[in-house]
Amino acid sequence: MSGLRVRLFAGARDAVGATEVELDLPAGATVADLLDRLRADHPAAADLISACRVAVEREFAEAGAALPPGAEVALIPPVSGG
Amino acid sequence: MERLLTGPIEMEALAARVADPGAGAIVTFAGVTRNETDGREVVSLGYEAYPEMAEEKLAEIEAEALRRFPVRAVAVLHRLATLDVGEVSVGIAVSAAHRPAAFEACRFVIERIKHDVPIWKREIFADGTESWVHPGEC
Q1: Cβ of B118 and A76 within 8 Å?
Q2: Measured distance CA(A20)–CA(A18) in Å, rounded
């Protein structure tokens, strides 16, 4: 789909250099496809991206999960709150 | 009730929020900024969040603790700011009729926070360097 916006946080934000990226992905693209694309676009951050989870509508999503058009998507690096 | 704040966490006020006449036990946990990591001196920790999701996850964790354990009330606060050594980053208070459940539920809550809430800390070292803490990153 066109114009998928992915919010970036913490180390991912620093590595990519932006708080958000906008991507065009094929229809039916999954969370795994998104991570592949992010690694391809930002190879220096590939290890960190591989360690990230993806949240869709503020819920952690599995690798095979769909990315609905217009959904709120975020890249969640390993957390360190508490 | 918002669970994320920028100002100091008052642990006594948090405990007072969960108090009730049927609770014989109130257990609190405070996560406090420590002065070192792996032998390196830390001067402060900077906390950031994906706030919309962090609020939801903290609320879910409170609700899950109330379901899993015979406790009466659970309250969590997490601070988003740059904290000096000794300052409280997270406060948890749990009340229960009896102490075993209060201790267990409090432990449960902090462990869940540390795994599933989108909050991150950045370590600021005495030598001036900084780095994000991303456990398990290659």
Answers
A1: yes
A2: 5
How high is the mean pLDDT in each 10-residue block of chain B (138 residues)?
Answer: 94 98 98 96 98 98 98 98 98 98 98 98 97 85
Determine the Cα–Cα distance for residues A31 and A24; give it in Å rounded to an integer. 13
Is the pTM higher than 0.90? The answer reads yes
Instruction: List, as ranges, residues 9-68 from B with C-beta within 8 Å of A.
Output: 31, 47-50, 52-54, 56
Chain A residues with CB under 8 Å of a chain B CB are 7, 9-11, 14, 47-48, 50-51, 55, 58, 60, 74, 76-82
Distance between CA atoms of residues B91 and B93, nearest Å: 7
SS3 B15: helix
ipTM of the complex: 0.95
Q: By CB neighbour count within 10 A (0-12 exposed, 13-18 middle, 19+ buried), where does B7 fall?
A: exposed
